Amino acid sequence: MLSHVSLGTNDAERAAAFYDPVLAVLGVRPGKRRGDSVDYSAAMLGFSLEQPVDGEPASVGNGVHIAFAAESRAQVDEFYRVARAHGGSDAGPPGLRPEYDANYYAAFVRDPDGNNIEAVYHGEAKRSAASVKVTF
Fold it and tell me: With CB atoms 3.0 to 4.6 Å apart as the test, which of 40, 68, 70, 121 could cross-link to 47 if both were Cys?
């Protein structure tokens, strides 16, 4: 079981200006700010953005993305709209992804640092968990 997930950022203020409104759509509120990091809590999994501890610039992980659980298709749509309005770029507009599952409704965006994030709703039959899913 995962405890927390962190994405790198080279600008914590810019990351917070993006993630605060985007994650608010999903009911996730910001936590404490610690220097160059921004913390959030989502159910049983913590999520943060921080500058790498090794002093190297943050860079986007190849093939890594984080999928946030949504409670409805409308919430996925709003996640995408708010992310784009706050500096995110399109990585896949809201819609069904039948290649994953007949009820898999998701939207993908790149945050201002280039990280690939997603909001996904699995439908009423498979209510999305109130947690963060990490795929590699």
Answer: 40
pTM over 0.85: no
Burial class (CB in 10 A: 0-12, 13-18, 19+), 55: exposed
Residue 115, classed as helix, strand or coil, is: coil
Q: Tell me the CATH architecture of domain 4-52+63-135.
A: Roll (3.10)
Query: For 126, phi and psi rounded to 5 degrees?
Result: -125, 65
What ranges do the domains of the chain cover? Answer: 4-52+63-135
Residue range 105-122, pLDDT digits in tens: 999 999 999 999 999 999
- State whether residue 13 is helix, strand or coil: helix
| Ramachandran angles phi, psi of 35, nearest 5° | 55, -110
Give which of 2, 91, 84 is closest to 42, Cα–Cα: 2
Q: Between helices 73-85 and 12-24, what is the axis angle to 10°? A: 150
Q: In angstroms, what is the C-alpha Rg of the chain?
A: 14
How many other C-beta atoms lie within 10 A of the C-beta of residue 94? 19
Side chain identity at residue 79, one-letter code: F
Mean per-residue pLDDT of the chain? 85
